[in-house]
């Protein structure tokens, strides 16, 4: 009996040692993969549209040739929370944006805006999902420092696709602005030119 136990132990010990070693190696690999993937910077969800309340506001504008702008009384920018799952990327809701223009002109645009609870901070990019339904539109993003009210502006992003598209804009895609601080960068404005309907989901500040 004693001999049998001894034999069993001798047979078991190397396999136990091996499995402990293997577990450690797997953990090590996982740790390295995590460090490679994660930058240690926490992304900020600006809006995933899962709330009850609409946190956005939209205004239709017309620019004057002198450079000023005033609210347009003939154009309509409609924004609402959407529950139709076809147009939801994540969760149960998204944002529906509909802009219709009566007399199309290059001077016309609509602007939708939101204030994030948390600033851009150590993140360096904006990401969002867009489902374009119809129309010809381009979007320009402005990121405001909500203390100095300085802004950085993106290039125009044409919505020349249908269905879902992930749009990522890094800070390098924006103009620079003195006295603009990423620690106060909380207000996002999206200017829409053209007209049409699109849905928006998962607007975030991320580290690229
Ligand atoms: Ca959502």
Describe the fold and architecture.
This protein is α+β, with helices and mostly antiparallel strands. It folds into 2 domains: 1-38; 44-206, Jelly Rolls, CATH 2.60.120.260. The protein has one helix at residues 2-37, and strands spanning 44-47, 57-63, 69-71, 76-82, 94-100, 108-115, 125-145, 151-153, 157-158, 163-170, 185-206. Strands 1, 2, 3, 4, 5, 6, 7, 8, 9, 10 and 11 form an 11-stranded antiparallel β-sheet that branches. The protein is globular. The N and C termini lie far apart (64 Å). It binds calcium ion. Residues 48-50, 88, 90-91, 93-94, 201 line the site of calcium ion.
Features:
208 residues, alpha+beta, Jelly Rolls, 17% helix, globular, binds calcium ion
List the helices and strands and how they pair.
Blueprint: H1 2-37, E1 44-47, E2 57-63, E3 69-71, E4 76-82, E5 94-100, E6 108-115, E7 125-145, E8 151-153, E9 157-158, E10 163-170, E11 185-206
Antiparallel strand pairs: 1-11, 2-3, 2-6, 4-5, 5-11, 6-11, 7-8, 7-9, 7-10, 7-11
The structure holds calcium ion.
Residues 48-50, 88, 90-91, 93-94, 201 line the site of calcium ion (CA).
> What is the helix content?
10-25%
Relevant CATH superfamily of the largest domain: Galactose-binding domain-like
Given helix and strand content, the structural type is alpha+beta
**So what's the overall shape?**
globular
Summarize this structure briefly.
The chain has 2 domains: 38 residues; 163 residues, Galactose-binding domain-like (Jelly Rolls, Sandwich).
């Amino acid at each position: 009996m004693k001999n049998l136990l001894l034999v069993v132990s001798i047979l078991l010990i190397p396999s136990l040692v091996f499995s402990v070693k293997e577990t450690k190696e797997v953990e090590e690999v996982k740790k390295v993969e995590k460090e490679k993937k994660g930058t240690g910077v926490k992304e900020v969800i600006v809006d995933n549209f899962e709330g009850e309340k609409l946190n956005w506001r939209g205004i239709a504008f017309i620019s004057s040739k002198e450079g000023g702008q005033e609210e347009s009384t003939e154009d309509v920018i409609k924004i609402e929370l959407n529950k139709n799952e076809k147009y939801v990327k994540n969760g149960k809701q998204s944002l529906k944006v509909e802009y219709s223009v009566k007399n199309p002109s290059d001077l016309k645009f609509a602007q939708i805006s939101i204030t994030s609870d948390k600033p851009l901070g150590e993140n360096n990019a904006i990401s969002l999902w867009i489902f374009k339904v119809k129309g010809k539109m381009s979007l320009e993003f402005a990121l405001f420092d909500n203390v100095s009210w300085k802004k950085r502006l993106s290039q125009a992003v044409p919505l020349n696709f249908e269905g879902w598209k992930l749009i990522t804009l890094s800070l390098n895609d924006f103009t620079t602005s003195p006295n603009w601080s990423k620690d106060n960068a909380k207000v996002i404005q999206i200017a829409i030119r053209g007209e049409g309907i699109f849905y928006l989901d998962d607007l975030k500040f991320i580290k690229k």
